[in-house]
Amino acid sequence: QTKIDHSIALLQKGERIALKYSDKGYHVAFSGGKDSQCILQLAKEAGVKHYAFMSLTSIDPPEVIRFVKSNYPEVELLKPKDSIYNLAVKHCYLPTRRARWCCNDLKETKFANTVQVIGVRHSESFKRSKRNEMEISGHKFSGTEDEFYNEYSDYTETTSKCIKGKENIIVSPIITWTEKEVWEYLNDRNLLYCKLYDEGARRIGCICCPMNGNKSEKLAEIRRYPHVYRNWIKAIKSIKAIKANRKESFLVWKHTPEEIFDYWISGDNYKKWYAENFLQQKLDFK
């Protein structure tokens, strides 16, 4: 309850800043997952003005989209201007953990110069454990909560805004929450959740997301959504053709599209993937 009270107070305190940047107030980034359900519910309980949106990527699980449409009609579904497959061809490489152009192109640059609420938590990853409760996208604010509000609340119509270009103020009200606490919060309020969790999903997001390091889960996803696999193979073929025309000789792209896809979802570096798939002798003990 202490964490709930803190999260609500955080949103209430920052509402005046959110309203200075947008008459819609907070922009709540919704994904249909448990954490986004949590932050949206907190915004409702805090009584702050907010606008919830979900940035679609063209590789969203259809079960998630149906769940959001049925249970959160107030969330605006924003369709991408181009599919992730076409974007991959334009970039001429697939998105990776280190080069996530997909998030930048399809999610993070939407609604610049607003105060956005997101559902990241420290316990999710090492990188997220270093994030702050309040940040400016692109760089971190180092200081106390009060110092943050003091620095970024003096905006008036006659002065320049504190965030510029494509930046946003990012608020993470559940950053210290555990996964168990998120589920307790949702269950206590009798909120329905996407059925994929009951089918074994630990996270709900893009199909074959490079941030998911579990290859077996990705293989299960492409068995469930074979159209995603077919579309990625088509995109890889197009990228290979472009690289061949440019006479680029990267080792990875000398493989077949199916092998390149397997390497991509493995999460391994090329040397390790190549050794495991082509150099190690496979023994038959029968």
What would you note in describing this structure?
The protein has 286 residues and is an alpha/beta fold. It has two domains: 2-197, HUPs (Rossmann fold); 215-279, no CATH class. It contains twelve helices and six strands. It has helices at 2-21, 34-46, 62-71, 84-91, 101-108, 126-129, 145-152, 179-188, 215-224, 226-245, 257-266, 270-279, and strands spanning 26-29, 50-55, 76-78, 115-117, 134-136, 169-171. The protein has a six-stranded mixed beta sheet with strand order 3-2-1-4-6-5.
CATH topology of the largest domain: Rossmann fold
Instruction: Determine the fraction of residues in helical runs and give it as a percent range.
Output: 40-55%
Q: Separation of termini? A: 59 Å
Uncertain runs with pLDDT below 50, 5 residues or more?
Answer: 154-160
Give the CATH H-level superfamily of the largest domain: HUPs
CATH hierarchy class name of the largest domain = Alpha Beta
Number of E-state strands: 6
Query: What's the Cα radius of gyration?
Result: 21 Å
SSE pattern: HEHEHEHHEHEHEHHHHH
Reported for the largest beta sheet, the result is:
6 strands, mixed
Q: What is the average per-residue confidence, as pLDDT, rounded to a whole number? A: 87
- The proportion of residues in beta strands is 5-15%
Instruction: Write out the strand line-up for the largest beta sheet, numbering strands in chain order.
Output: 3-2-1-4-6-5
Label the overall shape.
globular
